[in-house]
Amino acid sequence: MKTTIRQIGSHVEETVIIGAWLANKRSSGKIAFLQLRDGTGFIQGVVVKAEIGEEKFQKAKELTQESSLYVTGMVRADDRAPSGYELSVTDFEVIHEAADYPITPKEHGTEFLMDHRHLWLRSRRQHAVMIIRNEIIRATYEFFNREGFVKVDPPILTGSSAEGTTNLFHTKYFDEDAYLSQSGQLYMEAAAMALNKVFSFGPTFRAEKSKTRRHLIEFWMIEPEMAFMDHEESLEVQEQYVSWIVQSVLKECPQELKALERDTAVLEKIQAPFPRISYDDAVTFLQKEGFEIEWGEDFGAPHETAIAESYDKPVFITNYPKDIKAFYMKPHPDREDVVLCADLIAPEGYGEIIGGSQRIDDEELLKQRYEEHNLSEEAYQWYLDLRKYGSVPHSGFGLGLERTVAWISGIEHVRETIPFPRLLNRLYP
């Protein structure tokens, strides 16, 4: 019976066939141990000379790393094995014999591994991260479908910036200027006016010349927008969503978390509701902690980390100054100098994973913001139309997938959380 390593627990004491690659091997006298992977998981295959014969046993000992083969064997339960099972090999057929595989079991430098990213993905650690990433994506769809959201796909090529910044990748769209999208948010607001609650999941691009462990040039975002919803209601959706994906990973990816040596006790605490601190109070806290920061300045990584260390859950920092936030954020009803927004800061130094706000729903105020930010009313007329024809209170947020994967996985750098990272000086492979 042909099966996969992930499904092998359903075939204990049965003979199965798996297509696999040889990740590693070792031999001890008359026994050879094959570390096998098939893309769904890892398992040890035990080859006993007395059971398989001299010729086949010698061939097993000569197998090279990443050679591909069909392996036949009896599935055995084994509490000592990471997966809980091992395979007693009775036969194998070599499909392709690999030679001089560049990523050996020894230590390699980051640049070398990044140059061989197409092969590095095969390693146990990278496999675990990709499986967790997939589970977060699966749980995302499950959550928003359950909550009555409609999936909408905003364009990647746009004629203007979503946030009025200059960190855009420029291209020509026939005889017009165009840019790679840095956010689908504005289009999602239009979709919310048609479909009530919507979310997008797609690539975004930021031409920021940053080399920090939190930044990628190309990354993926989940961006929900909700009509008839105020800022406080949006915060509740955010904390429920983050709690959902964390608990889903804990439930569905225990082997992967174990392979990454992730402290799951930390993740088990991630349950809504999340604590909240205002920007005002955060500045006061940071000043008491010895940081040189004044009201009106944005927070950097050290500031966010210091604030997050006071909590064992993600923490919302609310009501930032208007002047350091995007043009579309709604002013606080009691204060003109701050807006109805929040950043969600992950624990353990992973920084902001969500940025969100209530959006301006007043046509005249949005026109005023266009002037303040030197935005072309002609280019943004369609966005103004949303306030002109049946405007309603509405809110939304964006979650950065790679930062979230890094946090849940316990991975230090976001470059390991996306299959083929695009970094400041890396476009290969």
From TrEMBL:
<dbReference type="GO" id="GO:0005524">
    <property type="term" value="F:ATP binding"/>
</dbReference>
<dbReference type="Pfam" id="PF01336">
    <property type="entry name" value="tRNA_anti-codon"/>
</dbReference>
<dbReference type="GO" id="GO:0140096">
    <property type="term" value="F:catalytic activity, acting on a protein"/>
</dbReference>
<feature type="domain" description="Aminoacyl-transfer RNA synthetases class-II family profile">
    <location>
        <begin position="132"/>
        <end position="429"/>
    </location>
</feature>
<dbReference type="InterPro" id="IPR004522">
    <property type="entry name" value="Asn-tRNA-ligase"/>
</dbReference>
<dbReference type="InterPro" id="IPR002312">
    <property type="entry name" value="Asp/Asn-tRNA-synth_IIb"/>
</dbReference>
<dbReference type="GO" id="GO:0006421">
    <property type="term" value="P:asparaginyl-tRNA aminoacylation"/>
</dbReference>
<keyword id="KW-0547">Nucleotide-binding</keyword>
<keyword id="KW-0030">Aminoacyl-tRNA synthetase</keyword>
<comment type="similarity">
    <text>Belongs to the class-II aminoacyl-tRNA synthetase family.</text>
</comment>
<comment type="subunit">
    <text>Homodimer.</text>
</comment>
<dbReference type="InterPro" id="IPR006195">
    <property type="entry name" value="aa-tRNA-synth_II"/>
</dbReference>
<dbReference type="GO" id="GO:0016740">
    <property type="term" value="F:transferase activity"/>
</dbReference>
<dbReference type="Pfam" id="PF00152">
    <property type="entry name" value="tRNA-synt_2"/>
</dbReference>
<dbReference type="GO" id="GO:0004816">
    <property type="term" value="F:asparagine-tRNA ligase activity"/>
</dbReference>
<keyword id="KW-0963">Cytoplasm</keyword>
<dbReference type="GO" id="GO:0003676">
    <property type="term" value="F:nucleic acid binding"/>
</dbReference>
<dbReference type="InterPro" id="IPR004365">
    <property type="entry name" value="NA-bd_OB_tRNA"/>
</dbReference>
<protein>
    <recommendedName>
        <fullName>Asparagine--tRNA ligase</fullName>
        <ecNumber>6.1.1.22</ecNumber>
    </recommendedName>
</protein>
<keyword id="KW-0436">Ligase</keyword>
<dbReference type="GO" id="GO:0005737">
    <property type="term" value="C:cytoplasm"/>
</dbReference>
<dbReference type="InterPro" id="IPR004364">
    <property type="entry name" value="Aa-tRNA-synt_II"/>
</dbReference>
<dbReference type="InterPro" id="IPR012340">
    <property type="entry name" value="NA-bd_OB-fold"/>
</dbReference>
<keyword id="KW-0648">Protein biosynthesis</keyword>
<dbReference type="InterPro" id="IPR045864">
    <property type="entry name" value="aa-tRNA-synth_II/BPL/LPL"/>
</dbReference>
<keyword id="KW-0067">ATP-binding</keyword>
